[in-house]
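Our consortium's second objective concerns turning raw sequence data into structural hypotheses that experimental partners can test. To show how far this objective has progressed, the report includes one record in full. It was chosen at random from the queue rather than selected for favorable results. The single chain below, 736 residues long, was entered without modification.
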Amino acid sequence: MSRYADIVLPLAQPAYTFAIGEGVEVCVGDAVAVQFGKNAVYTGVVWRLHDTPPAKGEAKPILKVLYDKPLLSELQMRFWEWIADYYICSIGEVMRVALPSIIKAKARCEAEFEPYKPKREVTVNLVAEVFVGEVREKLERRAPKRYEALCEIEKAGGVLPRYAVPLDSTALKALQTAGLVEMGERDYHLDCEWSRTLLPKLSEAQTKALNEIKKGLTDKRVALLHGVTSSGKTEIYTHLIEERLSRGEDVLFLVPEISLTTQLVERMRALFGESVMVYHSKLTPQQRTKLYTDMLSSESGNFVVGARSALFLPYKKLGLIVVDEEHDSSYKQSEPNPRYNGRDAAIVLAALHNAKVVLGSATPSLESYANTLSGKYAYALLTERYGGVEMPDITISDTVRNVKRNERKLHFNKELIDAIAERLESNEQVILFQNRRGYSPYMECPSCGWSARCPHCNVTLSAHQQRGKMVCHYCGYSETINRYCPNCKTSELKPMGFGTERVEEAVSELFPEARVLRLDGDTATSSSAYNRIIGAFARHEADILVGTQIVSKGLDFANVTLIGILNGDNLLASPDFRAEERAWQLIMQVAGRSGRRDKRGEVIIQTAEPQHSIYSMIGEYERVAAKLLAERKQFRYPPFVRVVKVVVRSSDKERLVDASMQLGQQLRNRFGGRVLGPVAPLIDRVRGEYRVELMLKIEVESSFSRARAILREEIAHLREDKSYRNITIICDVDNM
């Protein structure tokens, strides 16, 4: 009887059936090489074994099995299936983000196809029996550098990686010829000896919170640690991590931003040793693949710190997942598919492994907080800062009043200018927050109103003065800044609004003696650049740090006593039901960078709407949550309904409108008033494609799995119409 395998490929396609040749042994989860299309050879994953031939055509054979053990475990496969089902995409799209690029190799033909082989490091091996007596003494007298290098190899046990030996190739060749060293190679390996140090001693409040979490996790899967900024949540995490590692279990510590991993890893390695693993998308393909294959070979006891992609690693015995800053929108993948939420996926992964999850935040998401109110999650509250440090004073500065009194200079109200001057006088540091990078959001002609727009997206180009460019923040298009209006050719273009670059310029003008650094997407272009900036500020090599919301995340500066939020209004201006929640969270997170030691901090928020209710509830999480949850319930938004945003895209605007109207009608026939749209979004063209959106709202009491199945059916039905072949339809579940 012929045997067949359904194989998942890293494509936006369903699994395809391939034939298993005579003598070929394959298991579910194996990585195999298969030909797909006329020439291309792909890495695929065996998903199912059976004896049913494909309905159409003849099945192509599996070319070869790539590794001596399966690439995926049964639990990993179930996790992939959940991701694909819940976030309405194919398993092939999950494979594209789940596996390191080298593992899912592709080639133009079978002859060119090579599976991953771990790189081996070149070593210098000391021939100990020769490096003795007269030879040793002679080298010490005549070639001290070579002698010292050989002594270093000797101290290391006789073997050192080539890169660690400070000798050029000529010197090494001479030592080889003399019989003193031999060149070898070995697999790159990680030192797995735990270098244990004492865990931090917890305060009375931290100990109480830790005990509440442990008690809550006895009968619940998830616990929410709600601790104000600088309350010492990380110290509590370390005690929970230690407990799991001592049992030989795996631990995953998730962070929302790659840039946060460096500081966190340093803290964890100080406690748990060099074997703390780091995994995120900025590692090289070789590094990611090495870590993945190392975990395939290890039994358990791995401690991984990483961004959301670390969820897809091959854990054997996962015991605990910590999701730090669980409220952060960076946990949600925006593109491409799967558009998954790392926090929510972590909870599902933990359930598959029978593990526990600790969510931590100073400003929990309303969804997580609502789950504590319903009793679904355990809850621990930490209201005091570590060491008894007081929370910062909050001042709301009225921008309109400052303008009327002629007290506003270069984007700064008088209160903030005076406070900065006072901190500089006291040799203290300041952080200025403006949630917009670049010099200004757009340049405008004062005579005719012309402004530069992106030719591919329906947005204005943002000015970046230092680069001399106007840039689209959606597709990356750029052009040289025009000094004079190309439309009327009479007036000089004026920058409208301000970004971090313009703030940096203004600060230098107002306080010429101050040392200023900027931290945003233009300066923190890599982890090393990010670390260089925050390292310099931490060493007080600068007095003022200007930044976007990067400055709100995970930073701890002992000498910062003032935070200036330059434009609170633009945080509330987003046409999004989460705008108030995010604005409040961001204000509190930024404010938390102030006064983290023995000096009380201050936060000054500049706004033209000082009467806005959000400002009257700064620091009062329960009041904010009660207000926003009541509004969400009234207007049918999460956590009381589940939301799917359906985005329809095409470069053909007329065809797009037809398709979206037809899809909207099909969905209304099935869901009735639960469907909103289609409507054009605020930015209705990106990268040359027009966009139309629909929204589907499903009550939490209803079957969301059934709703997703119906949505898939109707999208498939629309795609059957050949006139809509060039229409792209994307489902964003629980969009943020």
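The partners drew two points from this record. The chain has 21 helices and 32 strands. The chain has a mean pLDDT of 89. Both points have been shared with the crystallography group to help prioritize constructs.
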